[in-house]
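User: Thanks for the earlier help. One more: Ornithine carbamoyltransferase. Can you show the sequence and predicted structure together?

Assistant: Of course, both are below.
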Amino acid sequence: MTRHFIDLTDAGPDAIAAMLNDAMARKTARAGWPKGKPDADAPLAGHTLAMIFEKNSTRTRVSFDMAIRQLGGTSIVMDAGSMQLGRGESIADTARVLSGYVDAIMIRTDDHQKVIDMAKYASVPVINGLTDASHPCQIMADLLTILESGKALPGLKVAWLGDGNNVLASIMEAGGLMQFDVVAACPQGYQPSDADVARGRGRARVVGTAREAVEGADIIVTDTWISMGQAHAETKLKAMMPFQVDEALMAAAKPDARFLHCLPAHRGEEVTDAVIDGPQSLIWPEAENRLHAQKSVLRWCFGQL
Ligand code: CP
């Protein structure tokens, strides 16, 4: 059966653990190598990944491109607006056609249903590169970064400061699968749906104050409150500001707590410079780990893990 990576549940806890172990081992094995040099075993030699972007990206685009190259394969990167897909060709037809040319398809779109439809009609693995509903590849990198910091996943308290968005939905899903608690502090009107909280399988909850979320937390996470390039939504920003991650809030977490942000960031809004550039921040390894985690996602999709 073709393996699609649309949400973390598609893989499940055992496969996620295997991917994280593989990512750490492969990252260690090629430390210091030029970025474009393939891994010694080049396990996806001859494979091609097509990437479709309906939305802007820096990290997802470049990290997937380098991931397939380091695994010995190649990529084709397309903006949906320059494809017939962007001019009315159906997802079903696009999926069937691309399946004849490439070995896997990654798509970033504002419409989660498009990824589901792509997987329905493609005969090759389909990977979710972010939708309005979830961002599983980002969370694989976050989990890898947490493990690298020396923390085990089961029993962790992860605090989320922000609105109920796609990234939070995948963190809650990860908590349910990997046995850690997710406490989200969200203002009224910006809370996650009940369905997203249910992804946490009883380990996710929503609270009303930032302080309640971070007390005793091991990991503090936030995300941009206003999408990059959008005119600032002043009403939303005003509601969100009490949830800004600053040094005082970090001090309320465990002393060895770490800070994550998937980037891009609006410094001075969701997080202060002192925190994002401070000693507890793991944002640069988190960003790099997109590359390492996605190599393992690709290997899992091809049945190698
Ligand atoms: N975090 C993330 O998905 O970054 P990009 O939007 O740059 O891909």
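User: Great, one quick takeaway?

Assistant: Residues 57-60, 130, 138, 262-263 surround phosphoric acid mono(formamide)ester (CB under 6 Å).
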